[in-house]
């Protein structure tokens, strides 16, 4: 799979793409990530990519022509690539988007700067628009890196174990269960006995219960959309009852 990133600051992406899992995936040819300087498609003496907004206002707006040329050039190289706009106005990016986008032949990320894009970029060049949270950054490079990392993990061979991604938080709509390693006791907190039992049936049942409990405590909104079995709902009902009981007990003390 190939990732194209169109940006005014390609050097911002260099170091993360050389390190750790992404760096290894690039070296092994499992993914290709190419950064492209938007000024390569600008015209004029100063290779300007932005201009003042019509109607006045603060900041500069990225012009549509250089972006259109960039998309056209990259589409000639990767015809089926989807064009993604990085913007705080986009759809919140999540694990399901990462899994779906990992099946594409290629992706073209358009990274904004300054006061954003000319609206005609959204209207005529872009397939999807994504945000990584309800906050504003100085540009789209970091969101593009975040998305590339999340998407690449679904590609064959990128992770050391093919099963690793299946137990991640959000993969099945719930948060991940707690993980433990050596030592067996740290700061007077012991590893749960069930994890030392060697009984994988009990371990799997405990992990599922912990997923439900952790999601209930930290992200109860996820439970409304999660695909829960009848057993999951029974366990969750018990966990809610126990949580309510402890809350009432604390309130009365």
Précis, in short:
This protein is α/β, with parallel strands linked by helices. It is built from eight helices and nine strands. The N and C termini lie far apart (about 60 Å).
Question: Which tags fit this structure?
Answer:
253 residues; alpha/beta; Alpha/beta knot; Trp Operon Repressor, Chain A; five-stranded parallel beta sheet; two-stranded antiparallel sheet; 8 helices; 37% helix
Walk me through this protein's architecture:
- The chain has eight helices and nine strands.
- The chain is an alpha/beta fold and 253 residues long.
- The protein folds into two domains: 151 residues, SPOUT methyltransferase, trefoil knot domain (Alpha/beta knot); 68 residues, tRNA(m1g37)methyltransferase, domain 2 (Trp Operon Repressor, Chain A).
- It is elongated and about 70 Å long.
- The mean pLDDT is 94.
């Amino acid at each position: 799979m190939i990732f194209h990133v169109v940006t005014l600051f390609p050097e911002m992406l260099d170091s993360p793409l050389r390190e750790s899992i992404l760096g290894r995936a690039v070296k092994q040819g499992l993914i290709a990530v190419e950064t492209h300087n938007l000024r390569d498609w600008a015209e004029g003496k100063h290779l300007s990519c932005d201009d003042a907004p019509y109607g006045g206002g603060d900041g500069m707006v990225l012009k549509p022509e250089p972006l259109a040329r960039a998309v056209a050039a990259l589409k000639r190289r990767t015809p089926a690539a989807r064009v993604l706009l990085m913007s705080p106005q986009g759809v919140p990016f999540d694990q399901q988007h990462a899994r779906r986008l990992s099946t594409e032949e290629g992706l073209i990320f358009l990274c904004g700067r300054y006061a954003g894009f000319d609206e005609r970029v959204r209207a005529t060049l872009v397939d999807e628009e994504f945000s990584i949270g309800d906050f504003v950054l100085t540009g789209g490079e970091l969101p593009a890196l975040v998305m590339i990392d999340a998407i690449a993990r679904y590609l064959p061979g990128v992770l050391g174990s093919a099963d690793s991604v299946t137990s991640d938080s959000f993969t099945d709509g719930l948060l991940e269960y707690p993980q433990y390693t050596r030592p067996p006791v740290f700061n007077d907190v012991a590893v749960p006995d069930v994890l030392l039992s060697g009984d994988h049936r009990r371990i799997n049942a405990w992990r599922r219960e912990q997923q439900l409990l952790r999601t209930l405590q930290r992200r109860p909104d996820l439970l409304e959309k999660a695909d829960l079995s009848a057993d999951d709902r029974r366990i969750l009902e018990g966990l809610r009852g126990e949580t309510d009981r402890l809350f009432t007990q604390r309130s009365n003390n």
